[in-house]
Structure of pectin lyase-related:
Amino acid sequence: MFSTSIQISNLTLINSPSWNVHPVYCSNVVVQGLTILAPVRSPNTDGINPDSCTNTRIQDCYIVSGDDCVAVKSGWDEYGIAFGMPTKRLVIRRLTCISPTSAVIALGSEMSGGIEDVRAEDITAIDSESGVRIKTAVGRGGNYGSHPDNNYDPNAIPVIQNINYRDVVAENVTMAARLEGIPGDPFTGICMSNVTISLSQNPKKLQWNCSNVAGITSEVTPKPCDLLPDQGQGKIRACNYPEDNSPIENMEVQTCSSFRNRW
Ligand SMILES: *[C@@H]1O[C@H](CO)[C@@H](O)[C@H](O)[C@H]1NC(C)=O
Ligand SMILES: *[C@@H]1O[C@H](CO)[C@@H](O)[C@H](O)[C@H]1NC(C)=O
Ligand SMILES: *[C@@H]1O[C@H](CO)[C@@H](O)[C@H](O)[C@H]1NC(C)=O
Ligand SMILES: *[C@@H]1O[C@H](CO)[C@@H](O)[C@H](O)[C@H]1NC(C)=O
C-alpha cells in the first residue's frame, strides 16, 4: 500500500486463499513474468488486482484462476467515492489466462474511485467464462447488488464510456455479448471492430443481449444488436488502440545483478 516504483517479477504463486497480487494506492508498478496458479473451482482467487494505482504494467503473465485473472479496482461505494483515487494508466500485455468461471479482465466490481485509461493487448484466453467483464451497480461498485453498509449513496451512478474492442477472435462461444447498462444511465461510446466470434455447438438463442447501451460496430460477426449499429466495412480505425505511450510501457525491469557483483 502507498508505495511507488514496485517491481514484482519472475515468481510462481500457488494456491493463494484469496487475491494473489494486490497493490493498493501505488504508482509505477511493474508486474512481469508471473505464473499464478489456483484451482479453477476456488472462489475469490483473483490473479492480479491493481487497486487505486497509477501507472501499472502487467506483462508476460500466465494465470489460472477460480475468479478473475486481472481485476481492476478502486474502492467500494461511499468509501471509494470519498477517497477518490482511481486506477489509471494501466497496461496489460501478453497475458494468458484460464478462468473457467469468471473473467480474463474485469473492471470492478468495487470501482467507486474510478477507472481510466486501461489498455490491454495480446491477450490469450483459454476456457474462460468472459473476456472482459465490467461489473458495477448503482452506488458505484458494490458486489453487483451488495453494499458495505446502508450509507451508500443510491443516487451515485457509474459513468461507463469509451470502451473499445478490436481485433478479437473467439471460438466455441455460447454467447457473444451481454451489454447491460443501467436504466436512465446508459453506457456509451462502445466501439467494436474486427471481431470474429465462432459459436459453440449449442449456443444461446440470443447472441447479443443489449439494454441501455450505445455505440458502434464495424466488421463484427455474428451481427451485433441494434444498439450497436454496423458502420459498414473499412471503419476499423474507429476503435483504434491509443497511439501515445504511457510512461510505464517502456519502463525497464531492474535486475539484482549489480548487487550480486558488489558482494
Ligand atoms: C483483424 O484481427 C485479426 C486477428 O487479431 C488480425 O490478424 C487482423 O490483422 C485484423 N485486421 C485488421 C484489418 O486490422
Ligand atoms: C467447446 O466447449 C465445450 C465446453 O463448453 C467443450 O466441451 C468442447 O470440448 C469445446 N470444443 C472445442 C472445439 O474447443
Ligand atoms: C437479457 O438481459 C436481461 C437483463 O438486461 C435479462 O433480464 C434477460 O434474462 C436476458 N435475456 C436472455 C435471453 O438472456
Ligand atoms: C526474469 O526472467 C527473464 C527471463 O528468464 C529474464 O530475462 C529477466 O532478467 C528476469 N528478470 C528479473 C528481474 O530477474
Notes: The longest helix spans residues 77-83.
